Amino acid sequence: MKVFKELPPSIYHSLRLATIPRTKLLKQEREKLPVVVSLTSIPSRFRTLHLVVRSLMTQSHHPKKIVLWLNEDIKSEVPNSILKLQGELFEICYSELNCSHRKLIHSISRFPDEVIITCDDDMIYRDNWLYLLFQAHLKSPKHVIGNHTLYINHDQQQRPLPYKEWKYPIGNTLNRKAIIPIGAWGILYPPNSLSKEVLDISLFLDIAPKNDDLWFKAMALINETLSIEAEVKPDEPIPIIGSQKIALKRENKDNAYNDTVWQALSGHYNLSSIILDHPEH
After folding, report:
1. Would 212 disulfide with which of 14, 101, 122, 185, CB 3.0-4.6 Å?
2. What is the CA radius of gyration of the chain?
3. Mean per-residue pLDDT, 55-59
4. pTM summary value
5. Structure confidence by residue, pLDDT tens digits, 235-247
6. How far apart, in Å, are the Cα atoms of 276 and each of 24, 139, 175, 193, 214?
7. What are phi and psi of 191, to 5 degrees?
């Protein structure tokens, strides 16, 4: 049923964005916000990726830069629908990495003093998406901010519960250390909000090779950075029909991969102690 509800807005906004002339996209002038938008993608989504980029290029306010990080081995596969959008605002860069972590770690290295906002490659973002996330940042400039978050719950033995049980408690005071942003709706990272270990490629490929959200949350925790959910959000992004046949998040949930990764991260960094010791409220 959900797919049928998503179909009309997906078709409408896909057609709307696809018919905007390239010259208009490249020449438009909008007020710029001091942020960098960073994302990655895979060849199975190249056919519709230009719609995601177009939705970022037509925000009510522009970022300083939109950077798409792709694996260098697929450089020859990038279609003209994406290549022709490059210009002062949008840029494609290439990486040796073949994992989703590249959407953030390379931009951290390249723009160490900038606010970086990550997003997914299978969504059309509402035109106030960037503006509202930045407004949330102005109110909480030191926090990692997500439009969608979960809550890391623990059992009585202080062991993390399974990922499917990471839900906000009802009627209890929240431990803000337990809040974890989830990426599809966008996550904002202030400069220096994550530990320098976030760039340790060999380590995250060993512990969390397929889950960047959990890796980045661990890097925030060991850096004593709190994560919060934005109070004022845009409408949810619009899924692009046909772009989600290969969905890493679905794979992660189906095979309990998230549980395995978080247990490994928690064991390596003693994350449960960090979360539960003198929790922030």
Report:
1. 101
2. 19
3. 97
4. 0.94
5. 999 999 866 555 5
6. 52, 26, 8, 20, 17
7. -60, 140
